[in-house]
Amino acid sequence: MIGKLKFFYTLFFCYVLIVGNVLAQDFSDAENAIIRKANTSRFAIYHGRKMKEFVRLMNLARLDPDLCARYISVEYQIDPGRLKVVKNFRPRANIEKLRPSLGLHLSAWIHAVFSGWSGNTGHQKFELRKLMFLNFSTITGFSGENCEYGSKDAVDIFLSLMHSPGHRANILNRYYSRVGVSKKWHVNYKRNTVSVFSGPTFWDKLFKR
Q1: Which in 55, 83, 132, 169 has the greatest CB count within 10 A?
Q2: Residue 99: strand pairing partners
Q3: Cα(151)–Cα(107) distance, rounded to whole angstroms?
Q4: What is the mean pLDDT of the chain?
Q5: Cα separation of 202 and 206, whole Å?
Q6: In sequence order, what are the beta bridge partners of 195?
Q7: Residues 114-157 pLDDT 10s
């Protein structure tokens, strides 16, 4: 049993090294640094692997749309035609990365669970959830929410939202700096992903994060 575990971990370690080297060859050191920094929710234990990647993709779109499109093309082998919506936008000056927020995650989680079991679509009770959670996450009145239905993988969720003007506007909104995401089962669409955005927290302003 121990021998099998050692073999598995060795195989996994080799896979990580190979994938890392492939990505490193496709991007410059500066680009790899941006890709790493875009993964702001890597330490958010309440975000699963796919939701962490979803946050990374949103951050790349905010920081460097061309790099975002190339990263998706290399990592996921996506048809270039689907990436035009990403490449056609220029990064805005002084736009911040989206950082994870537990309060916003709870708001997204509750809505994803409720929508999933009820079969609803849309943004029901957003104002109520705002009162419950956003006050712990923002010191401004800026907030928004995206809902996506049917997609399973982070890249499909991201591209689906980017092809919708209203949802894309939330992802690229320069007034947002915090995000919470949650993907749950949906009775009609099999899965639904909720993203809740807000402005900076008090601590963000205090420490200028």
Answers
A1: 55
A2: 178
A3: 20
A4: 85
A5: 6
A6: 146, 181
A7: 999 999 999 999 888 888 876 555 655 678 999 999 999 999 99
* Distance set, CA 166 to CA 15, 160, 163, 202 (Å): 39, 12, 9, 27
Phi, psi for residue 123 in degrees, rounded to 5: -125, 45
- How far, CA to CA in Å, does 121 sit from each of 51, 87, 128, 148? 20, 29, 17, 9
- Tokens 């049917």 label which residue? 150
Beta bridge partners of 136: none
Extract the tokens encoding 72.
């998706």
Q: What is the pLDDT of residues 29-59, one digit of tens each?
A: 999 999 999 999 999 999 999 999 999 999 9
Q: What is the pTM of this model?
A: 0.84
H-type alpha helices, 92-164: 102-118, 126-133, 154-162
User: Within 10 Å of residue 202's Cβ, how many Cβ atoms?
Assistant: 11
Nearest to 69 by CA among 83, 54, 82, 51: 83
C-beta atoms surrounding 84 within 10 Å: 11
